[in-house]
Write a structure and sequence with these properties.
The complex is a heterodimer of chains A (230) and B (426). Chain A is mainly alpha-helical and 230 residues long. Helices cover 33% and strands 7% of the residues of chain A. Chain A has nine helices and five strands. In chain A, strands 2-3 form a two-stranded antiparallel ribbon. The longest helix of chain A is centred in the middle third of the chain and has 14 residues. Chain B is α+β, with helices and mostly antiparallel strands and 426 residues long. Chain B has two domains: 182 residues, Alpha-Beta Complex (Sulfite Oxidase, Chain A, domain 2); 122 residues, Immunoglobulin-like (Sandwich). In chain B, the strands form six sheets. Chain B has a five-stranded mixed β-sheet with strand order 5-4-13-8-9. In chain B, strands 6, 7, 10, 11 and 12 form a five-stranded antiparallel β-sheet that branches. A five-stranded antiparallel β-sheet of chain B has the order 19-18-22-23-24, with no helix packed on it. Classes of the chains: A mainly alpha (230), B alpha+beta (426). Chains A and B meet through helix 1, helix 2, strand 1, helix 3 and helix 6 of A and strand 1, strand 4, strand 5, strand 6 and helix 6 of B.
Chain lengths: 230, 426
C-alpha cells in the first residue's frame, strides 16, 4: 500500500492538470471551521442498523438466530430456486450451477460451484439472504436461508445426512473443501518480471505468424444488426 | 427537420448514409473517398442543401440534448450469450467511436447484478456503522453540504478482455476492451464521511453495500479507503446516470470496477474482509495449479488500439490516424509503444491530452499506409515501470482459467483491403 501511495503522489506530480491531495482538501476545510467535525448526518437508530446490517462474515459474525435441515431446504429450493438453478443445483440455461465440479479446478474447463470453489459457507448465507431469489430479494426468512444452506451443503456432499440441522451455533464448524486454496494477491512478486527496464524497440522477435483468429470462433454479435432492444 | 427535398437528393443522401454505416463488412476499395466522380463539381457544394435553406429545430425542441441522428450506431452493445439474463449482464463502451479521454456518460458500459435501481435522491440514505464511535445516517442533502472534489478516473471491470484468455474470440475492441470508461467524478472523500462517524482503531476493512436488488457488497481495505476513495454523486458535471449508481456510488481509483459499489447505501467498518460472494465466487483468479489469487484489486497497465480495429477498418491508403487508449491502476501512463509488424519493431506513440493518475490517456501514431498487411499492437508502460505483458507472458504465469485481469497485448491484423480482425500471433 505504501508503494501505491508513492505512485499516487508521483502521478499527481506527473499530471498536467492540478489536483489537490485529498488530505489537503480536508485540512483546508477543517482549518476553516472551529470543530474538526462537520456535524452532518444523524445517529443511526438500532432498528435501522438491524434492518440493513444483515451481512454474515466467514467467522460467523452477523449470523441471526435460526435453523433448518437439508430436507427442509430441499423443499424451499424446489419451490424458489430450482426454476433457475435446476433441481439438483445443476443450473438451467445459463443460470449459475450451484453443485458438483469437485476436482475440476485444474481441468481445462473448471466447474466453479459452491461445493467445488467457494471457500466459506457464510458467503452462501450472506448472498442468498440479500440477493436471492433473483427478482424477489430479501423475501426469505432466516430459517429458510439456514435450510437452503444445509441443502446446498448436502447437494455438494459436504453434509451427508439430509436430517442435518444447520443453526447459528454449529454454522462455523462447516469446512469447505476448497477453503485453503486462496492466497492474497502476489502479482508484485510472482509477476515481477513485468516490471522491465528498457523494453526492446528494434528487431525484437522473429517474423510473427497468425495462430488464432476471432472470425473462426464466430461469436461476435452481427455488426450490422442494431443494438438489442430489451 | 423539414424534409422537402427532391427524390434524387433523397437517394443520394440515402447512399451517403449507407456508406457511413457500412461497418466491418466494407472493404476500403469499395468505398470511394468522396462520393463524386473526379473532376465533377460536388453537388453538396454546388446545390443548396435543406439545412442551408430551411429553418432547423428551435431551442427548446431538445431540452436535454442527445447525439446527432447520424451517430445512432454509436451505442453500447451487449453479447447476449455471455450471461443468463439482461438484469445480470454487461454491455460494452464503443471505444472505436470515441476520442479524447472522457467517456460520454450515456456510453459508459453497464454491469448490473440485479438490474438498474431507480432511486429518488430524497429517498436515498447512506448509513455508516460497525466499528465506529457513532453510527450515522446521511441524506443526499447532507452529502451535498460536505467539501467536495473533482477527479478523473478510469473504471475497468476486472473481467474486461476476460473472454480472450483462451485465444482471440470477439471481433471488435468494443467487445474485447469495452468494459472501461473514464469519467470526471464530483464527490466527497470517503475519509470525510468516516471522520464524521469516527473509526475505531481496530477498523481495518470496510464493507460497501448497494441499495439495488443484488445488495452488492464488497470489502475494501481501510488504507485505500482513507487514501483516495470518493463517494460520488456526479459524473461529467451532472448527476450520476441511473445505470451508474444514481444517486450515489463509490469511486475506488485504479481498482477493479466491481468495488465501485453503485447505489451505495451502507458502509460498515470491521476488522477483517467479509468474504462476500463477489470476492470469493467471483473476482478471484483461478490459476493453472487449481489455487486462486484473492484480493487482486489493482488493474494492471493496459492499452488497446481502437482505430483501426475490426469495427473500424482502414478505408484509405496514404494518411491515416492510428489511435488508442492506455491506463494503469498503479499510477500514470509514462509511455505507449506501438508496433505495426507484430512486435518486431516498436515506436513510441504520441500521447495527447491530459496525463492523469489512474485515468485513460489518448495516444496516436500518424501513419502513412501503402496497403501492406499490418499486425498492430500497443503496449503501455506506467509510472512504476510496469510494461504491459504479451498474452503469452501472462498465460505463462496465470494459465487460461483466471477470467479476470487479462491485460495482455492485443493484436489486430490489418489486411491489404483494410479489413481488420482480432488475431493471436505466435
Amino acid at each position: 500500500m505504501s508503494r501505491l501511495a508513492r505512485f499516487l503522489f508521483a502521478g499527481l506530480l506527473g499530471g498536467t492538470l492540478a489536483t489537490t491531495p485529498i488530505a489537503e482538501v480536508l485540512a483546508q476545510q477543517v482549518a476553516a471551521k472551529s470543530s474538526a467535525k462537520l456535524g452532518l448526518g444523524r445517529p443511526a437508530l438500532p432498528e435501522e442498523i438491524k434492518a440493513w446490517d444483515t451481512d454474515v462474515r466467514s467467522d460467523g459474525k452477523g449470523l441471526p438466530a435460526g435453523k433448518g435441515t437439508a430436507k427442509q431446504g430441499d423443499v424451499v429450493f424446489q419451490e424458489k430456486c430450482a426454476s433457475c438453478h435446476g433441481e439438483f443445483g445443476e443450473g438451467a440455461g445459463r443460470y449459475p450451477v450451484l453443485a458438483g465440479g469437485r476436482g475440476t479446478l485444474k481441468a481445462d474447463r473448471p466447474d466453479k460451484t459452491v461445493g467445488s470453489f467457494w471457500p466459506d459457507v457464510s458467503t452462501f448465507f450472506d448472498y442468498v439472504k440479500r440477493a436471492m431469489p433473483f427478482g424477489n430479494a430479501q423475501s426469505l426468512t432466516d430459517d429458510e436461508v439456514y435450510a437452503l444452506t444445509a441443502y446446498v451443503l448436502s447437494m455438494n456432499d459436504i453434509v451427508k445426512d439430509e436430517n442435518f440441522e444447520l443453526n447459528e451455533k454449529n454454522f462455523t464448524s462447516i469446512k469447505m473443501p476448497n477453503a485453503a486454496a486462496f492466497y492474497p494477491d502476489d502479482r508484485e512478486t510472482a509477476e515481477k518480471h513485468f516490471w522491465k527496464k528498457d523494453p526492446c524497440m528494434k528487431d525484437c522477435r522473429t517474423a510473427p505468424k497468425v495462430i488464432g483468429r476471432a472470425v473462426s470462433v464466430d461469436v461476435t454479435p452481427d455488426s450490422k444488426a442494431g443494438p438489442k432492444v430489451d | 427537420m423539414s424534409d422537402k427535398p427532391s427524390a434524387d437528393i433523397l437517394n443520394r443522401r440515402r447512399f451517403l448514409g449507407a456508406a457511413g454505416l457500412a461497418g466491418a463488412g466494407a472493404a476500403f476499395a469499395a468505398v470511394p473517398a468522396i462520393a463524386t466522380e473526379a473532376g465533377k463539381p460536388d453537388p453538396l457544394i454546388t446545390e443548396v442543401q435543406d439545412w442551408n435553406r430551411y429553418l432547423g429545430d428551435g431551442v427548446q425542441s431538445r431540452p436535454y440534448g442527445s447525439p446527432s441522428k447520424f451517430e445512432k450506431d454509436v451505442v453500447r452493445r451487449d453479447v447476449a450469450w455471455l450471461t443468463a439474463s439482461p438484469e445480470s449482464s454487461v454491455n460494452f463502451t464503443p471505444l472505436h467511436r470515441l476520442d479524447g479521454i472522457i467517456t460520454p456518460s450515456g456510453l459508459c458500459f453497464e454491469r448490473h447484478h440485479g438490474g438498474i435501481a431507480e432511486i429518488d435522491p430524497a429517498d436515498h440514505r447512506l448509513m455508516i456503522n460497525g466499528l465506529v464511535d457513532k453510527p450515522l445516517v446521511f441524506t443526499m442533502e447532507d452529502i451535498r453540504r460536505m467539501p467536495r472534489v473533482n477527479r478523473i478516473y478510469f473504471l475497468e471491470c476486472a473481467a474486461n478482455s476476460g473472454m480472450e484468455w483462451r485465444g482471440a474470440q470477439l471481433n471488435g475492441c468494443q467487445f474485447t476492451h469495452g468494459m472501461i470508461h473514464n469519467v470526471m467524478y464530483t464527490g466527497v472523500p470517503l475519509k470525510a464521511l468516516l471522520d464524521e462517524a469516527g473509526l475505531k482503531p481496530n477498523a481495518k476493512w470496510l464493507m460497501l453495500e448497494g441499495a439495488d436488488s443484488a445488495g452488492m457488497n464488497r470489502s475494501l481495505p481501510i488504507e485505500k479507503a482513507l487514501n483516495d476513495v470518493l463517494i460520488a454523486f456526479a459524473m461529467n458535471g451532472e448527476a450520476l446516470r441511473p445505470e451508474q449508481g444514481y444517486p450515489l456510488r463509490a469511486v475506488i481509483p485504479g481498482w477493479e470496477g466491481n468495488l465501485w459499489v453503485k447505489w451505495l447505501r451502507r458502509i460498515e467498518a470491521g476488522d477483517q474482509p467479509w468474504q462476500t460472494r463477489e470476492e470469493t465466487s467471483k473476482y478471484t483468479d483461478l490459476m493453472a495449479d487449481g489455487r486462486s489469487r484473492k484480493l487482486t484489486f489493482a488493474m494492471d497497465a493496459k492499452s488497446v488500439v481502437t482505430n483501426p480495429s475490426p469495427q473500424a477498418p482502414l478505408r484509405h491508403k496514404g494518411r491515416n490516424v492510428l489511435t488508442g487508449v492506455a491506463w494503469s491502476g498503479r499510477g500514470t501512463i509514462r509511455r505507449v509503444d506501438v508496433t505495426l509488424d507484430g512486435g518486431r519493431n516498436w515506436q513510441s506513440a504520441r500521447i495527447d491530452g491530459p496525463v492523469l493518475d489512474k485515468s485513460l490517456v489518448r495516444f496516436y501514431v500518424d501513419l502513412d499506409w501503402n496497403g501492406q498487411e499490418m499486425m498492430i499492437q500497443s503496449r503501455a508502460i506506467d509510472s512504476t515501470g510496469y510494461v504491459q505483458p504479451s498474452k503469452e507472458e501472462l498465460r505463462k504465469v496465470r494459465g487460461v482459467n483466471s477470467i479476470y485481469h487479462n491485460n495482455g497485448i492485443q493484436t489486430w491484423l490489418v489486411r491489404a483491403d483494410g479489413e481488420t480482425e482480432n488475431v493471436e500471433i505466435g
